[in-house]
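Continuing the batch. This is chain 6 of the set; chains 1 through 5 are on the previous pages. Same settings as before, nothing changed between runs. Recording input and output for traceability.
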Amino acid sequence: MSFQEKSNLVMTVIIALAYGVYFAVVMPPALSDGPSMEGVGPYLFAAVVFLVIGGVVAHILVAIAAPKETDEADERDKLIEMRADARSGYVLGAAAVLSLGLALTEQHLFWIVHMILGGLVASELVKGVLRAIDYRRGV
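Output for chain 6:
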């Protein structure tokens, strides 16, 4: 398993954990008590801090485990990255259209913001999964 493949798997798991917990904490009160942006800030900040620190620590550990594999990406890695970017862009585009739809129908700011954030997160998760598939099956 190359450094890029390990990096992809680590970041996909960290993104899923950080934002999975975030949405699990923020959404139930919004659905039961109504949407409110007031209490969201600290949870979003915690998710971003976990994402950054977790990513840095995980990459350091992966690099320490196999220091010779940390070379630059080869052509295969670049092709896998391009393919995953292109395909996950459809998820991001769909979320953008849905966010615009929420804005045009004058929905609460909470739902618009979280549709945008959800689209970004979903796009990154799809990209990570598609990269993992391409690494395993080949391109």
